[in-house]
TrEMBL record, chain A:
SUPFAM superfamilies: Sigma2 domain of RNA polymerase sigma factors, Sigma3 and sigma4 domains of RNA polymerase sigma factors. Residues 109-160 form the RNA polymerase sigma factor 70 region 4 type domain. Transmembrane segments: none annotated. InterPro entries: DUF6596, RNA_pol_sigma-70_dom, RNA_pol_sigma70_r2, RNA_pol_sigma70_r4_t2, RNA_pol_sigma_r2, RNA_pol_sigma_r3/r4-like, WH-like_DNA-bd_sf. Residues 16-76 form the RNA polymerase sigma-70 region domain. Pfam families: DUF6596, Sigma70_r2, Sigma70_r4_2. Residues 178-273 form the DUF6596 domain. This is Sigma-70 family RNA polymerase sigma factor. Gene3D superfamilies: 1.10.1740.10, Winged helix-like DNA-binding domain superfamily/Winged helix DNA-binding domain (1.10.10.10). Belongs to the sigma-70 factor family. ECF subfamily.
From TrEMBL, chain B:
This is YciI family protein. It comes from the Bacteria. Belongs to the YciI family. Pfam families: YCII (PF03795). InterPro entries: Dimeric_a/b-barrel, YCII. Residues 1-107 form the YCII-related domain.
Length: 400, 109
């Protein structure tokens, strides 16, 4: 890549979402905003190699995109609303402080994450419009073709205009009501990036957006909690797989390669994170991340967090993890008792992590024969070959 | 924006419908602040007449266009800045508790 091309790529990654957000605010026209931002990037690719990279690449792109929008609106049929937009765009002194620019993106996040849109549309639209992720990459993450994803994004944008979804950050009680939805979208985004087959860039993008959200809403504890959770999970990204690509459990990972800066930042955030569900998950992640060795993990602290989490979020998986934590903190009998409780209702029937947990707790309680049988049953239930091999190995160790 | 607020029944109303606000109060307040332009209750579906023209011939049938358990029992025409304002108006209506409410923007050129 030439220097100029690299400059376009760098400036574009940073400026594209800002330009789109600013032009949507002024024109209310999503397609126009995106088209003009794209055309500014194309113009930069064409001109910068000859004319040199401008001193302020982001500013150059913003000006070019805005001029392009003025051209388009000027050529469009003259109607009152368009004329008003034009007046706003051509205002000779648009003295907007930097804070306002950031605010544009927050507005965009809340608009893309509006609960009147379907959840998948919210995630896709946030990726495309707020984060500037190419449609092709989003399509890959959702396992659909690019043209399908293009249609979905177009539909979502049309719905925003037709239904009258406001381009605004809600205030007061409405903010408290809407924020969980926004945090939920970012969480889903992060998970898409962190899952075994996910797009790693999405995790980084989710962190960037969570950081932006926390900067702009510093008094919202769950925004701090979510950012802390992301950072603490992400600190382990380099150590989660062995050279053959298989996932490694916490006790198998090389802790010296965990990202200490991310861990420190995540732990520091916990002071402002309160006790919401994301904060509790972050505290659990922090207990793992700050343990010098797996054996020195503060399991009683983790068990307490799961107790609190199970009160607000009594999902089967949370109750399973709570049983495992209690098993480490207070002995296998305590863990097995809670596991039996979590199993009531049958939601965990045939769920391999629950079967593996029972096998592990049974082994530690001193019943190797039964534990080996449980490990073999778990091996039959899992789908991935490496997991099956690991479980069968464990069964073989227990039954000599 | 103008929203047609369709007030509908639902076979699964809120388990605590007593928490619903008073309808007289709702109408008086929305009329006073200009959010409600007009509105009315509907006579029951049995009073409906469905009109069609097919091959130039007028076809009338009694009853609504579809037999459903949930029906539209009334409407209010709202004038709101955006969807969020319309949602706030709808959530304050007692039938949001006892039934459901559909907000449909009017296409305005």
């Amino acid at each position: 890549m030439t220097d100029a091309a690299r400059a376009v790529a760098d400036a574009g990654a940073e400026a594209y979402p800002r330009i789109v957000a600013a032009l949507i605010r002024v024109t209310g026209d999503w397609t126009l905003a995106e088209d003009c931002a794209q055309e500014a990037l194309a113009a930069a690719l064409e001109r910068w190699p000859h004319q040199g990279v401008p001193d302020n690449p982001g500013g150059w792109l913003m000006t070019t995109a805005r001029n392009r929008a003025v051209d388009v609106l000027r050529r469009a049929t003259v109607e009152r609303r368009k004329l008003r937009d034009l007046a706003l765009l051509t205002d000779p002194a648009p003295a907007r402080p930097e804070g306002d620019v950031v605010d544009d993106r927050l507005r965009l996040i809340f608009t893309c994450c509006h609960p009147a849109l379907a959840l998948e549309a919210r995630v896709a639209l946030t990726l495309r419009t707020v984060a500037g992720v190419p449609t092709a990459d989003i399509a890959r993450a959702f396992l659909v073709t690019e043209s399908t994803m293009t249609r979905r994004l177009t539909r979502a944008k049309a719905r925003i205009a037709a239904a009258g979804v406001p381009y605004r950050v809600p205030t007061g009680p409405a903010l408290v009501e809407r924020l969980p939805g926004v945090l939920g979208v970012l969480y889903l985004l992060f998970t898409r990036g962190y899952d075994a087959d996910g797009e790693p860039a999405f995790a980084a993008e989710a962190i960037r957006l969570a950081r932006l959200l926390h900067t702009l809403l510093p008094d919202q504890p769950e925004a701090a909690g979510l950012l802390a959770l992301f950072l603490l999970h992400h600190s382990r990204r380099a150590t989660r797989r062995d050279p053959s690509g298989d996932l490694l459990t916490l006790d198998q990972q090389d802790r010296t390669r965990w990202d200490r800066a991310a861990i420190a930042e995540g732990v520091a955030l916990l002071d402002r994170a309160g006790d919401g569900p994301y904060a509790l998950q972050a505290r659990i992640a922090a207990a793992h991340a700050t343990a010098p060795t797996a054996a020195e993990t503060d399991w009683p602290a983790i068990a307490r967090c799961y107790d609190a989490l199970a009160l607000v979020h009594p999902t089967p998986v949370v109750r399973l993890n709570r049983a495992v934590a209690h098993g480490y903190a207070y002995g296998p009998a305590a863990g097995l008792a809670l596991l039996a409780e979590a199993r009531e209702g049958g939601a965990l029937d045939g769920y391999p992590p629950a079967m593996a947990a029972e096998a592990e707790l049974t082994a530690r309680r001193g019943d190797p024969v039964r534990a080996a049988a449980l490990f073999r049953a778990t091996a039959d239930a899992v789908r991935s070959d490496p997991e099956r091999r690991a479980l069968l190995r464990r069964a073989a160790e227990l039954s000599p | 924006m103008k929203y047609m607020m369709l007030v509908c029944t639902d076979t699964q109303p809120d388990r605590n419908p007593d928490a619903a606000p008073d309808i007289e109060k709702w109408v008086a307040e929305r009329d006073a602040n200009g959010q409600r332009l007009t509105g009315s209750r509907f006579a029951p579906p049995s009073a409906a007449t469905t009109v069609r023209v097919r091959d130039g011939e007028l076809l009338l049938s009694d009853g609504p266009f579809a037999e459903t358990k949930e029906v539209i029992v009334g409407f209010d025409l709202l004038e709101c800045a955006d969807l969020d304002e319309a949602i706030e108006v709808a959530r304050a209506h007692p039938m949001a508790y006892a039934g459901r409410i559909e907000l449909r923007p009017l296409v305005e050129d």
